[in-house]
Amino acid sequence: MTHFRHINTLKTFDWFLIGGVVFFSLLYSILSGSFDAMGTIAGVTGVVCVVLVAKGNIFNYLFGLINVTLYAWISFKAELYGDALLNALYYLPMQFAGWFTWMRKRSSEESVTIIARRLSRNQRYILTAVSVVTVAAGAVFLDILNDPQPVKDSATTILSIIAMFLMVKVYMEQWILWVVVNVISIMMWSVSYIEGEPHSMLMIIMWIFYLVNSVNGWILWIKLSSNGQSVLK
């Protein structure tokens, strides 16, 4: 049995992100006069998950398992089929794949943190080309399925698939894609909010905190991947 002893602790900024999404979710519930349990749990577990990813903490996958399950259902109800399929058919099984992969990439046998690394220049060129082509193809496919936001939905779906793969492989470049995905997702859920989707405001709050955390994670992993050190012990 594995015994985790080197537990990296959360800093003030991390608690700010987690506390912030809890506060604004509850504030929205008070102002709207109804408590959206599913949206609140999805938002809070999602932010805890990405905060732990930024820390390089393997326990992010436990919270991610809850988040992607709920988010898949919420996206399906909002007719954002790309996001729904992404979470149900890709993110969900990747929580298990990520856990076992990160277990082998930890900085020590009893640590919960992993070692960050970077793509080569040529790999970044290939990543950019593949991202552009696949997002365009995905948008055409989703438009055929009458997706209400095919370009945005395709971008968040395709870039998230690539970013999640880079995350499991502990590459720093994942954060560049996460920033793009977060910005587009905020725009996409804003449209859903205007159209009256009940869970959308909580999803907007969640994605805003995702964006802040992604910028923070990008900064941390740039420094630590260049040093070849584990992410924040």
What does the model show?
This protein has helices at residues 12-32, 37-54, 60-77, 81-104, 121-144, 150-168, 174-194, 200-227. By secondary structure, the protein is mostly helical. The chain has one domain (12-107, 118-227). It is globular. The chain starts with 11 loop residues before the first helix and ends in a 6-residue tail after the last helix. The relative contact order is 0.16.
State the main characteristics:
mainly alpha; 233 residues; globular
- Percentage of residues in strands: under 5%
Helix count equals 8
Shape: globular
Element string (H = helix, E = strand): HHHHHHHH
The rounded distance between the terminal residues' Cα atoms is: 22 Å
Count of beta strands: 0
Arithmetic mean pLDDT: 85
| Radius of gyration of CA atoms, rounded to a whole number | 17 Å
Question: Share of helix among residues?
Answer: over 70%
Structural class, by secondary structure, is mainly alpha
Largest sheet features = none
Q: How many domain regions?
A: 1
Low-pLDDT residue intervals, each spanning 5 or more residues: 229-233
Question: Layout of SSEs?
Answer:
Layout: H1 12-32, H2 37-54, H3 60-77, H4 81-104, H5 121-144, H6 150-168, H7 174-194, H8 200-227
Helix pairs in contact: 1-2, 1-8, 2-3, 2-8, 3-4, 4-6, 5-6, 6-7, 7-8
